[in-house]
Write a structure and sequence with these properties.
Neurotransmitter-gated ion-channel transmembrane domain-containing protein, Methane Monooxygenase Hydroxylase, Chain G, domain 1, 3 helices, about 110 residues, Neuro-gated_channel_TM_sf, signal, about 0% strand, membrane, Neuro_actylchol_rec
Length: about 110
């Protein structure tokens, strides 16, 4: 729900910003910024759905889970996907921010 709300807010900001700045024939950096953020939030929503689907699929198929190592069960693939997303999206966000900082400062 938070990701959907964030996407709605980004779309509203994008529309408001597009209406207040002068019209040009080319893409401005602020347009690209909003489009990249909207695409990133969409990717986050898709990954949340994927991880939740994995969790629910294997919830009913678990036979036994080791008490000492619960994350080593073959049926808990969603933990790996969740861990990947926890690392991937912050790294991508940092890369996007650095790219736009560099693009914004170069004349």
């Amino acid at each position: 729900m938070v990701a959907l709300t964030a996407m709605l807010v980004l779309a509203a900001f994008f529309t408001q910003t597009s209406n207040t700045i002068p019209k040009t024939a080319y893409l401005k950096l602020i347009d690209v910024w909003y489009l990249v953020l909207i695409c990133q939030v969409f990717a986050i929503i898709v990954s949340l759905v994927y991880v939740e689907n994995l969790r629910l699929r294997y919830k009913f198929n678990t036979v036994e889970i080791s008490i000492l190592r619960p994350f080593e069960s073959k049926n808990l693939h969603f933990h790996k996907a969740n861990r990947f997303c926890k690392v991937f999206f912050p790294v991508i966000t940092a890369a996007i921010l650095i790219t736009f900082l560099i693009a914004g400062t170069v004349p």
